[in-house]
UniProtKB/TrEMBL annotation:
SUPFAM superfamilies: P-loop containing nucleoside triphosphate hydrolases (SSF52540)
Name recorded for this polypeptide: Sulfotransferase
Keyword field: Transferase
InterPro entries, alphabetized: P-loop_NTPase
Highest taxon of the lineage: Bacteria
Sample GO molecular function, one term: transferase activity
Length: 312
């Protein structure tokens, strides 16, 4: 059975896309096995390998431990003994019971593993070619992406990328100078925009990889997910269509409440959205000058391939 990977930079809609594919009832949702923080990462029952960097790069030269570990993950073989050796707190035991049960039942019922992991984005080619995954890469407009990171106060140390020699050799070598210049920078806007630009410059082109603009999914969620279901080899049903439609039924007047919701196995950043707000929220997060600066920092990339485009 063909496993699935949903990836893309954090805050690009991967949780939403993953949950909508899970609505097929044909997959087991596996949340962020490559996240370097616990939870959800560092869970050897799910992935019995050691994650050392955000955006861990996996390729044929370093795949030994990763190939063994991910083959167990996509086969839905949960490592109870490995998990108990590392994580034994009350939350960990509850999480182990959920994942262990889901993996076992999913395997018995013939379901496929679906990894939802933004930290896998730079390893998308490896997942497609070595694990045989169908890979969906979510791409958000750079202004909306940067605005979301700014609102949350997020940044990234480019040392996470620079300290991976194989990643720099294979993909990011041409960008090493600007990554070093911004490593540890307090200019969070420049960091986020540069991360967006370099990652999307090196996305793989492969029949097994589908680059999907987030904004296009928001504008036509039912049509967009119907196409993704076909790409992933999932059956499109009335139940799935209803779930997708409901995910975009929230209106601005209904906004509020918790930013996270419990659904399936893991806590995710997905919640029902107001489509108009989703496409226009950047206006409230960035000034006109900041928007222009992001556009300048990310210019030169094909919007038809890497973004659905924002309203004018």
């Amino acid at each position: 059975m063909t496993p699935l990977l949903v990836t893309g930079l954090p805050r690009s809609g991967t949780s939403w896309a993953g949950k909508m594919l899970e609505a097929s009832g044909q997959v087991v949702y596996v949340n962020e096995p490559l996240n370097p923080q616990h939870p959800p990462g560092h869970s050897p029952g799910v992935l019995n390998a050691t994650v050392t960097h955000r955006f861990q790069y996996i390729c044929p030269e370093n795949e030994g431990p990763w190939l063994r570990a991910f083959r167990d993950t996509i086969a839905l073989r949960y490592g109870f003994a490995a998990e108990l050796r590392r994580n034994r707190g009350p939350y960990d035991l509850a999480r182990m019971a959920k994942y262990g049960t889901a993996f076992t039942l999913g395997r018995l019922r013939g379901r496929r593993a679906m990894l939802d992991d933004p930290f896998a984005v730079l390893s998308a080619r490896w997942f497609a070619e070595r694990l045989g995954c169908r890979v969906v890469v979510l791409v958000r407009d750079p202004v909306a992406f940067t605005g979301s990171w700014m609102r949350l106060g997020w940044t990234v140390r480019f040392r996470e990328l620079l300290d991976q020699p194989l990643l720099m050799r294979d993909l990011l070598g041409p960008y090493s100078g600007e990554l070093r210049a911004l490593d540890g920078s307090a200019d969070r806007l420049a960091v986020a925009a540069t991360l967006w630009r370099v990652v999307h410059a090196v996305l793989p082109e492969s029949p097994r990889v589908r680059v999907t603009p987030y904004e296009e999914l928001v504008r036509d969620p039912v049509g967009g997910f119907r196409e993704l279901y076909a790409f992933c080899g999932l059956e499109w049903t009335g139940r799935a269509a209803a779930r997708v439609a409901a995910s975009c039924s929230r209106r601005r007047a209904d906004r509020g409440g918790k930013a996270f919701g419990w659904s399936g196995l893991s806590r995710t950043a997905y919640r029902p959205m107001d489509p108009a707000a989703a496409l226009n929220s950047y206006r409230d997060r960035l000034t006109p000058a900041e928007i222009a600066r992001v556009r300048e920092l990310t210019s030169g990339w094909d919007p038809g391939r890497v973004s659905g485009g924002l309203p004018g």
